[in-house]
Please model this.
Amino acid sequence: MSEWTPSTWRALPAEQQPEWPDEHALEQALKTLSTLPPLVFAGEARALRAALAQVAAGKAFLLQAGDCSESFNDFTADSIRDKLKVILQMAVVLTYGTGTPVVKLGRIAGQFAKPRSAPYEVVNGVQIPSFRGHMVHDDAPTPEARRPDPSRLIAAYHQSASTLNLLRAFTKGGFADLSQVHMWNQQFVASSRQGQRYEAIAGEIDRALRFMAACGIDLRAEESLHQVDFYTSHEALVLGYEEALTRRDSLTGAWYDTSAHLLWVGDRTRQPEGAHVNFLSGVGNPVAAKLGPEATAEDVLALCRILDPGREPGRLTLIARLGAGRVERLLPPLQEAVRAAGHPVVWVCDPMHANTFMSDGGRKTRRLDDVLAEISGFFSACRVTGSWPGGVHVELTGDSVTECLGGAEEIVEDDLELRYTTTCDPRLNARQSLDLAFQVAELLRAG
Ligand code: TRP
Ligand code: MN
Model:
């Protein structure tokens, strides 16, 4: 095989690529992107890889969370801050409740492209191209809005840069300090049962910190109390964009996709001979693959061979999205095959994507109970095979949306109309997310 380069994928079949109407405009946009500064730096991607190696060894847990699809319209400091608040709350619940370190990985600052099962959809009797994310076109249901526009690739880069900038400021500049635990509990969350349960933990953390200070420990000198390492990830779907941001690391000479710390291939683009897997095979970042219910042990082994030939802990994460009713049956054979082949992968549960259905009112939704049932089935499967349940991958927002059913507020189908603002899949709101974190902490403790 000849040497891999960031453009090797171009000779291979690439699923789910937008049909850009203006080839020349696309080339210009990609050329511009390739001159812009990297968003993340290779050393950070290696740090995430090392953190994931701890997860692979059963010594840490991965929390990967964020929007299904980030929006160009809902782009404010408040929405980024509120998303971070709920992720920090979940991390506190998991860390405090289990005594296990939590690796925090946002599905954010680059999650702008969506694969779709059907190229077209019918809205109000008119057939229009399916929505593929704001990196490609607008979500308004008109043929004009859905025309792919390459200038959006550059807009996605800039929005990623400013999102990442704010996240870095928040996570390193005092906002994520453990002395701020109470502040992350938003009002509409604090008033709920989970919110109160969270307050109790926050109070205990305060007491523990006061105790350590009274013992003479200099808490100011303990950097880890005052900041968190927060990493970013998205689906590497639009390969021209990913290629343009792939650079050679001056330190090691290796290629890194500098659009995010971790990139994944979706269940629809994980063909071993396809362009997406080829692209990820050559970058030094930690990478992941989503596995749907159709994935066979042979499929998974082929992915392991290509994406983790060196059998390196932290390199490859496998994200199972199998469905609440099927995970306990489908996951063990995959885990056993991977184990037998000697790949030290991280196993993660995405309890969202295989539990989606249409409400009677025509809204895509999910039941929190199904989401929790899939996580619980994932833990059972891992227990059967002796694998470490390495983490969860969830779609959430810090807002008080009504997109998923159930939870302590008992959102029912009629409520979906109230605050349904996602541009793609239904997300857990902040209360439902906290609820999930408590359940995961319990499952981890029970294991
Ligand atoms: N830095 C530690 C960690 O990331 C402790 C910590 C600081 C923390 N702020 C946090 C943990 C916020 C969870 C949430 O684990
Ligand atoms: Mn989704």
The chain has a mean pLDDT of 96. The two ends are 44 Å apart (CA to CA). The pocket of tryptophan (ligand 1) is lined by residues 88, 91-92, 95, 101-102, 176, 178, 224-225, 228 (CB under 6 Å). The first helix runs from residue 23 to 35.
